Amino acid sequence: MDADGKTLFVESEGGLHLTDHHSHHVHHHNHQLFRQIRQIALLFGVIGVTCFILYHSADSFQSLPHSFYSPRHDQSGNGLVKLKKVLEKAKTEDRTVIITTLNEAWAAPNSIFDVFLESFEIGNQTQRLVNHLVVVALDQKAYSRCLALHPHCYALSTNGKDFSSEALFMTTDYLEMMWRRIHFLHSVLKLGYNFVLTDADIIWFRDPFSRFYSDGDIQIACDFFWGNSSDRNNLPNGGFNYVKSNHRTIEFYKFWYASRAAYPGLNEQDVLNKIKFDPFVSQIGIKIRFLDTKYFGGFCQPSKDLNQVCTMHANCCIGLDRKVHDLKVTLEDWRKFLMLPANLKASHTSSWTAPQLCSFIPVNLPTSAKNNVQQERKN
Ligand SMILES: *[C@@H]1O[C@H](CO)[C@@H](O)[C@H](O)[C@H]1NC(C)=O
Ligand SMILES: *[C@@H]1O[C@H](CO)[C@@H](O)[C@H](O)[C@H]1NC(C)=O
User: Fold this and answer.
1) Ligand 1 pocket check: which of 119, 122, 124 to mutate, most ligand atoms within 8 Å of Cβ?
2) How far apart are CA 89 and CA 355, in angstroms?
3) Domain of 29?
């Protein structure tokens, strides 16, 4: 555990990962922790292989041992009551909530959370959406900051503990938190709520709901979108998705979470890229749609149309300071666009002045995708 409680998310950095959801704060005195995590990871590897074998020898997913699936952090008891209360208050008429997760670094004044909230203020008809936003705080400081700024805050517990009553968040690593989030979202679906999950480093310019497909169970934004919303070769980004609560999505999230064991060491997004081709996913009958970066863009592949864009994600970006800087630049671009007279808006062609600090070409793309990306960059 980090003594000052600041290391909340350890990011899969090093430029090897396509996207980077969260800030990276690794302190030198954490070597001890990392040694422990390595040992735990090794253990998980062993468990993973065991479960992988179990899974593949089983006729269906349902025969996975239950104790593996919902071990430590089920949304239960007090946590579940609180969660229901928050969701009930924040839901839209059709039981949809917007969910984001926050840690201390992101919640600090003048950091990601402030920029995120500001985007709702200056977006087009996005102000009312804030009433449906549930902020899931991953530690005590993020929870306090949320309470100071926002009506719907939820402290996510781990190991049955409630962060809100703890002085320090018992930190684990990035992977653990991202998987925790998948598990949490599964709980939300089981309670019968649809959700739009948005990383807080995604700024909102317009109401996205009219851009969602009527027939998608899961609709997911992309780092790179190749033009066909049904094509699983698109490269999804787990940081923004719209998921309807039904038996297919509940089954899918259960499978996604359990698949962690089959791919030890991968984050939830990399595992998604594996399991999106899994026959079991077809068997569930789930309809996955990939969202066009024209509406749901990011620094990897920015929307080229300010008249249509709904969101901009600080993906393809490493480091909290860079993200904050470039998101602020992006908000400034948006402000300038809003000030243009209507006729100039319509004919507006000039693109974003960001990313400035964030830009990098991800290196772990499949070769085919790499060629597409290079082509993109030339255009
Ligand atoms: C904002 O939304 C309104 C209503 O949908 C629309 O008429 C207007 O053109 C939008 N403005 C921008 C800048 O998109
Ligand atoms: C889009 O992708 C789906 C799934 O791969 C395929 O069935 C469909 O034919 C594609 N549509 C077009 C227009 O290429």
Assistant:
1) 124
2) 36
3) 9-62
